[in-house]
Amino acid sequence: MEYFDLEEVLVDIIKKYPEIDEAETQFNALLDADETLRDDFAEWCISKGYNERKAFTIFYQEYINREDTIWDSIFPNKEEYDGYK
User: CA neighbours within 13 Å on the CB side: how many for 70?
Assistant: First the structure.
């Protein structure tokens, strides 16, 4: 699996389970069930410089921060985002 594919898996889980605890639980279940995914994840962690235990949480936080930044750039004024309150 390429790194891009692995990151797509991570993003799909985050979108499906927006709460970090549930998302991490689901991802860990996938890792437990798929040895190839587990090996790819370990390799991906090394390439990113992540500790395997913290990698999902770090990726989750970075992804959420990127998404927030995208919305901030679309609606630079809070009033626009909040429906002109």
Answer: 6
Degrees, nearest 5: CA angle 50-62-72: 165
Instruction: For residues 37 and 53, give the distance between their C-alpha atoms in angstroms, rounded to a whole number.
Output: 15
Torsions phi, psi of 34, nearest 5?
Answer: -135, 105
pTM (2 decimals)?
A: 0.74
The confidence score (pLDDT) of residue 84 equals: 46
Q: How far is residue 56's CA from residue 27's CA, in Å, rounded to a whole number?
A: 8
Per-residue pLDDT tens over the stretch 16-65: 999 999 999 999 999 999 999 999 999 999 999 999 999 999 999 999 88
What residue type is 81 in one-letter code?
Y
- State the Cα–Cα distance between residues 23 and 27, nearest whole angstrom: 6
Contact 33, 70 (CB under 8 A): no
